[in-house]
Structure prediction request, 1121 residues.
Amino acid sequence: MLNRVQEIVPPETGLMTPGLLLSIERGSIDDGPGLRTVAFLKGCPLRCLWCSTPDAELASSEMEYFIDRCIACKKCAEACPTGAILVSDGEILTDRTGCDNCGKCVEVCPGGARKMAGKKTTVMEVLGEVRRDSVFYQYSGGGVTLSGGEPLLQPEFSIELLKACQREGIHTAIETCAHADWHILRAALKYTDLAHVDIKHMDPAQHKRLTGRGNSLILSNIRRACHAFPNVLFIIRVPVIPGYNDSDQNIADTARFASELPNIQRIELLPYHRLGTARYSALGREYPLEGVPPPSEDHLNHLKKLAGCHGLAVQIGGR
Amino acid sequence: MATAVSDSKARLADRVWQARERVLQTRPSIDLERAQIFTQSFMTTEGEPLVIRRAKAFKEICQRRTIFIQDGELIVGTPGSRIRAGIICPEVCYQQLDEELDTISTRVQDPFLITEEQKKLFTELIRPYWKGKSLKDAWMARIPDNLRQLAVGTSIIDFSGKDENGPGELAAGYQWVLNSGINGIKKTIERRLASFAPAVPEHRDRITYLKALLIVCDGIITLARRYAELARVEAATETDRQRKAELEQIAGNCERVPANPARNFWEALQSCWLYHCCLHMDLKGSAYCPGRMDQYLYPYFKRDVEEGRLTRERAQDLLDLLWVKFAEIVSFYTRWSAIYYSGYMPFQNITLAGIDGKGKDAVNELSYMMVQAQMDVRLNQPTLSIRYNKEKNPDSFMHKVAELVSLGTGNPAIFNDEVGMKMVMGHGVSSDDARDWCVSGCVEPLVPAKLAYWSDGGHINLGATVELTLTRGVQRLTGLPRPLPDTGDPESFKTFAEFKSAVKDILAYQIKKMVEGGRILDQASRELRPVLAASLTYPECIEKGLDYQWGGPKYWSPPAIVLVGLADIANSLAAVKKLIYDEGKLTWDQLLEALDKDFDGYEEIRQMCLSAPKYGNDIEEVDRLAAEIARFVAEETGRYTGLSGAEIVCGLYPVTTHMPFGKALGALPSGRKAGQPLADGMSPNQGTDVKGPTAVFKSASAVDHAAHRAGTLLNMKLSPSLLKDEKGLMHFVSLLKAAFALGIYHVQFNAVSAETLKAAQKRPEQYRDLLVRVAGYSAYFVELRRDVQDDIIARTEHMSFA
Prediction:
């Protein structure tokens, strides 16, 4: 897409850095201060059971099928080169094992029932989108937030984008699980004003069970980052998943860990929600946490109080 | 400034509650008393000048009409013989009732009760006298056939019921009444009269006119005196001591005002209100707007509070009671017009905040209390507007405004102060006078007692522009040909530019016919419908001896032309450009066939149309088309002048015409199905803006709002969670500031309710834009699983009852 950035900023190699984008959301009020544009990048090293953005997990593009938009024109079945789309009794089924996510069906789908999660982009293109809301950042103290997936899984792209935004005077934030090579995290933090870092569980074994990976790299990265970047504000985010990581002990351990670090602005307890479940169906996957209810307000308040004992500010939600 | 009334949330005085209930329990009914007295008076004044006849009739209404004082009232007066009375002005349009005499009480939209006795009165006295004499008769006799075929009952263009109602949207000089009293105004008239000489031919009409105004003054004073007498009589028999004292005070107030200058807050409110009633009695107007009440009432409030005569609680009660009085007024519309102005809407618009005459922040304690009154009373009238000056008005006031927004009543409308000033200055208003602008009708900027015009002079259906270009002048749903220039077979458009230019040709023709009709209506109104009671408080009307309707006010513009369906025309153009000319995915044949069948059996084509770029998503290629059409209309209307010689202006707001205009239309290339509503004002088509509010504001900012001097309107849905905490309020205010920095003129927020969410479950297609946000995550409501949707509905319901 052409946009004004091309005219204003001289082309530099960094601006042409390619990336794989899930989506861009504008006017967000939950991803850092002010009104923000959030760029969700594809790919994540973790596989959290409760993931609300399963379409961001894979580092490659994936076909999503939203049945409520399907008009059953069957064009997709005709277009599919691998024969993975089957029509039976007027119902359209996608055989995920036969689908190689080539995107041919998406191209012919008239109603947008089939979409590609993951779009090739460049830093320049995303910067152009980010700049569209400059006036809103100006009046609200907002800016850009890189999220995902895990932005650090596309290090060149994320770093160049953060750098480009800072150069334009746009406030930068990242939302990261910190499961990345320290050198990558360090390079990204150089161009970051605010980092939201997730701690899913303090116990290494539990962490591995819930996310597929241990937490030692994550915790050591957080420790190093807080010491190395006194000018960056850090917010520790804990997704509160009833029955999985919401024990008093885990929350207290997390708060204690955070309270021993410099530069932590606060802890945010993010209540588990089920808004992402439809995306599992669109990807043809089972939702692993079926039947888990969101945490009660009482329980959240209890955890907030508990975490607050360690001296840091604690809030419920990400505002 | 801290809000003085934040503690009053739970506190609503019994009498306010009672008055509110009375409004809610009263079904609107037809009121023929004014029509009867007016007609009887006219029978005795044959041969006299029209203005004298009108003045005498008005005075007689003041002398003879039924008056009453209701339980617990502290401010008295109604324009009709009952509350919620639909007053008929037969001299304007007796036909209003004629055609619906037997169906008015049972019609679907805005029914009115009517008695057999009233029907008899109408058929025996009122209709026979006015037949052939009304403004509507004049209009029907004067419009040429080709205009009639285009404008009457077609929804291609319309004249906003200006042939059925009183004058246009107006904001009279309430402040002058408060400060000088009717007696003071009378003295001004008498002085002016003395300066005219009967021997000078051009003075004669002016002398007659000013004499008519003097009769109107007497009428107003007479009416107030009658209320005073009634209050005295009721006080005499009242056994409750407190109420007795109140009635005596009411009597004292009505003896004093509006004849004389008000001396305190209570008198000021009473004075304002009785004058307001008189406007409605003189002529049923489209929109009588009290304007900047927080400004002109403030000195009375301040003095009373400082001198210890008035507590803030008492002042709030008085305001709340006045607010209920506004809701006691309903407007009578014909079956046809009721669809356009549904909800018996009298459009009494009150404007708060902005800047004062010296350019300083005008927000005062009353501004907060009037927002609170709207929160307390929560009825469909008055309409509340905020002039938001983002540089000067304090955030704390906007937080108060946000509290009101969060109630989900759709109130208030928020206006960009700077753009509003620019708009009125576009009418030739001086920069000093512009500082006093207020909102009238829905979104139209006026200057009280100075700038006059029908800001809602009529509407152009932009969806019809597209349809009639494609069908070469045939309305798809009726199959009837309409007199329009033939722009040729769509197949013959070799390029998109040719198609666009054909669309503009049709649009230019619609504008031309609107101008033609507007002039006829304006002329007929000059001859037949002077507006005496309102003109009385326009100082220049007295100075010149000319009525509001004859160009008396200081500034004067011809009827404005209002566009409806900007998004529909932009989206239709964009879809044709993309699908036919850029990508060649469709032929004209295919598209026209699909439109003809309302996409029935052509769902694929419809989906292609729907996936073309849509206005409201900050997409330049379609926003540019919206801007181009808007500019074309502004330039095209500006080529014409009205009777006053001034340029004709245009606006972009629908009132509620986007509903009937949509009903009259077949399918459009935008993907919109037949009969669906058009987009309202500057708003995107329902459900097509999927990138959130910042993108909507960006799209809307592609249009030069100030060039649409009759005003622009932008409606926006607001996620229910946004306003729930302090941070949300801050974001809300910064969103507004940024939007206004982009040059947006007006925005009205609809906090999404549980009802909306339920509607979205039923018709997901129309609610694709509905975002649900929770901490760090947002999703489109319609894309959620049903059980999750139900959860959110339950939560929203809980919130609104909390």
User: Anything to note?
Assistant: Chain A has twelve helices and 13 strands. The radius of gyration of chain A is 21 Å. Residues 123 and 161 of chain A are 5 Å apart (CA to CA). The longest helix of chain A spans residues 155-167.
